[in-house]
Amino acid sequence: MPLLELRAVSVGYGRNRVLQNVNLTLERGEIVTLLGANGAGKSTLAKSISGLMPAEAGAILLEGEPIETLPPAERLRRGIAHVPEGRQIFAGMTVAENLALGAYASPDADKSERLEFVWALFPILRDRMQDLAGNFSGGQQQMLAIARGLMSRPKILLLDEPSLGVAPLLVAEIFRLIVSLRAQGITILLAEQNARQALSIADRGYVFENGRITLSGASKDLLNSPDVAERYLGMGSATEVSGAASAALAGRLRGVLFPDAAPAGGAST
Known about the structure:
With 269 residues, the protein is α/β, with parallel strands linked by helices. It contains 11 helices and 10 strands. The chain has a single domain (28-53, 71-257), classed as Rossmann fold (3-Layer(aba) Sandwich). A 6-stranded mixed sheet has the order 6-7-8-3-9-10, sandwiched between helices. The longest helix has 16 residues, at 168-183.
């Protein structure tokens, strides 16, 4: 039985279908990559799995159980963590608060073991727990976003364009990290425009075009395909949030997570 299975899944924005009749499987311990140009449907697929976008048709099965009607928080509790495109860290909150958000839906209140886990992967975070996340570089923010996703002890980690907007030297480090996470038992679904880099670490891949899977197979076969190499390399753009909007959102989230705490890092609430 696959760890995750999508059966004839279709997803849309209003009347516009973005994904059409998508069939996909993810086995335990795999790295599976989603390839395609900007707007091909990779991010929408990740959102449909994590529950941020509802499936209009089809079924999404986690360990054989249907989850397509469950809210995002419940999917997170069941083991699906989503690191979205553009990182989406909360710039007006501290590193500690961002990590706490990653564990918020977990029934286990003791987060010390998970913190030790992410600190071992990202030593810089241990030393900067009280720093505002917005002061980090793009690569450091991506590390924080991945660490936040790992705080829930996921079975499946959905990584959406982790190399986007990251310095080349750090891109290689991020891909090495992805391989190490698989070695620790975490299954990875990787949406990535950098086809060669993604296929070099993945077991299998799916190629998307106009919301449909047009090609799939073992990574070594896709990596040697001239068509894949020529058509599915490219860059996207990260999502930016204004400082004022970030500070306001940070205040609201901090009020939920830490109702008795004073404002941290000088952020306005």
